[in-house]
Write a structure and sequence with these properties.
542 residues; alpha+beta; FAD/NAD(P)-binding domain; 2 domains; 7-stranded mixed sheet; 3-stranded antiparallel sheet; disordered N terminus
Length: 542
């Protein structure tokens, strides 16, 4: 539940600081382009369209923009930096300049920012806000959730949004709409078809589809991999920023509903060696050698500037408690979603509390875990805990095209697949999907649904424009919950990639309005030419 202090701070922030409140009353506000979702993909869409001259509304549920990038995901998920440029590279450069000018080239803070690819949440938000505020054609609506979508002639015409604290509602009209939410809420309300869950192996002929056990240590398929489809989704978690400076720390307290039984399975993981060092050590993947064979390996920890860390929940131990908790989230109402978010928040804090305090845990392990506490200077209006739940996959659009495993993996000769003629970005991150189920009877190596193919089969592939275009609904572009199979979605679902797709979506929306055509009828060569002017990385030869 929100604390009184949080409610008060958020209300005052919205009332006095939020530029959307310059638009008074419940009257209709008309824009060229309306974007729902202040994720990095939504921000990129707004900036690209706004810079070209379109009047843009950008709507975000929280009183903060940036999605996961400003909610604890403190390092950029990118393997080949040259493959993603454009607005993402501008963001990275803004981060780099912040640490360079604030601390100096020879500082530890500058070194830990890794040329701007690693950052504190507050710094990421500062850079995003500066980028948005530089574009005077963007109206930002923070603290608003989507209530409804009105359509006409098979296209969205307006949306109703509601202030999450005051209940005030506004109607925003637009000529083109962009769904940049993690959940796919806008396109679902607009009547676009979508997928939810995992396809069976037979649907697209994908080797790793459906129910699957993959031994990531030895790179082999395990028994029980039936390939059957279902409605399960990868586990949702929170990504944490934790401080190591005691003077900038808020101690973790026992959360509501704490139950140590949620975590005692980690003792078995420790004994079985599942908390040991990885077979292939790669810096930047959340590996701290001093954590190997310690219970703190329940977390994946990476250093970021100012004595802080990016902390992920390690999905490799069988005791991983987060799978299945997201059941009902995507199709649930706001009350249901808030309840699941609270459960996952308390489960996350409970894991930290367990690692730091449980008397069955060896003291040496507890002492290491106690080095990591909530940061006093981050998320100050949310009790120092991230705002955004890590929604790794929600609805996936049914688009004009659908990206599948076969489109994103190396062929039998080890070569990249052909680039689609309508490519508007490059995908490069490995197939990586969190578990969908808790430990099942007989599980002794890996949780079901965990696909971690970090070193082998994923290609450098072109991302087609038409995976962002619904099969039927017009004047709608979807750069985040785009049209992909479950397996393929696990490689495009990275914030840098979504920024590249968002930049393409915003540019396409503007060019469509300029040409007087629906986005599905836009000449892609024109879009590609404009994206190259914006320094977007595109496949060669197109």
């Amino acid at each position: 539940m929100y604390s009184f202090r949080l409610l008060l701070c958020a209300f005052l922030s919205i009332l006095f600081l939020n530029p959307s409140h310059a638009l008074e009353g419940n009257k209709n506000h008309n824009f060229d382009i309306v974007i729902v979702g202040g994720t990095p993909g939504g921000i990129a869409a707004a900036i690209s369209a706004g810079r070209l001259g379109s009047r843009v509304a950008l709507v975000e549920r929280f009183d903060h923009i940036g999605g996961m990038t400003t909610s604890g995901l403190g390092k950029s998920d990118i393997e080949h930096r040259e493959m993603i440029q454009g607005l993402f590279k501008e963001f990275v450069e803004g981060v780099r300049q912040h640490y360079l000018t604030t601390y100096g080239e020879n500082s530890e803070e500058y070194e830990l920012c890794k040329d701007g690819y690693y950052y504190e949440p507050s710094v990421a938000e500062k850079v995003f806000m500066e980028m948005v505020e530089e574009v005077d054609t963007i109206d930002l609506f923070t603290g608003y959730r989507l209530i409804s979508v009105s359509t006409e002639d098979n296209a969205p015409k307006s949306i109703v949004i509601e202030d999450i604290f005051s209940g005030e509602r506004k109607e925003l009209g637009g000529r083109i709409f962009i769904d940049a939410t993690y959940e796919g809420d806008l396109f679902a309300m607009a009547g676009a078809d979508f997928r939810l869950g995992r396809e069976g192996r037979e649907v697209f002929g994908e080797p790793h589809a459906g129910v699957f056990y993959y031994d990531f240590r030895n790179k082999k398929v395990l028994p029980g991999s039936t390939g059957e489809g279902d409605d399960r989704l990868p586990a949702y978690t929170y990504r944490l920023c934790l401080a190591t400076n005691p003077d900038n720390s808020v101690p973790v307290e026992e959360p509501p509903g704490y139950n140590r039984e949620d975590y005692v399975g980690y003792f078995e993981d420790l004994e079985a060696g599942r908390l040991s060092a990885p077979k292939n050590f790669k810096p930047g993947r959340g590996y701290f050698p001093e954590h190997f064979d310690k219970l703190v390996r329940a977390l994946s920890v990476t250093l970021i500037p100012n004595e802080k860390t990016d902390v992920n929940m390690n999905p490799r131990p069988l005791a991983f408690p987060f799978a299945e908790v997201n059941e009902g989230y995507i199709e649930g109402d706001w009350k249901t979603r808030l309840a699941i978010e609270e459960r996952l928040r308390n489960l996350t804090l409970g894991l930290l509390y367990f690692l730091q305090n449980d008397q069955e845990i060896p003291k040496e392990h507890r002492d290491i875990a106690r080095e990591y506490q909530l940061p006093k200077d981050e998320f100050i209006d949310n009790n120092h805990f991230p705002h955004q739940l890590y929604i790794r996959e929600g609805r996936r659009l049914k688009g004009v095209k659908t990206l599948t495993e076969l489109d994103v993996t190396l062929d039998e000769k080890g070569e990249n697949p052909p680039y689609p003629e309508d490519s508007i970005a490059i995908g490069e991150f490995p197939i990586d999907s969190f578990p969908v189920r808790k430990k099942q009877p007989g599980d002794d190596a890996v949780l079901e649904g965990y696909l971690s193919m970090m070193d082998n089969i994923t290609a450098k592939y072109g991302i087609p424009y038409n995976i962002m275009i619904p099969e039927k609904v017009d004047n709608l572009i979807v750069p985040v919950a785009a049209s992909a199979s479950h397996v393929a979605f696990s490689t495009i679902r990275m914030e840098p990639t979504w920024m590249a797709m968002g930049q393409a979506a915003g540019t396409a929306a503007h060019l469509s309005l300029k040409a007087g055509v629906a986005p599905r009828d836009l000449e892609v060569k024109e879009l590609q030419a404009e994206l190259r002017k914006q320094n977007q990385a595109l496949p060669e030869g197109l």
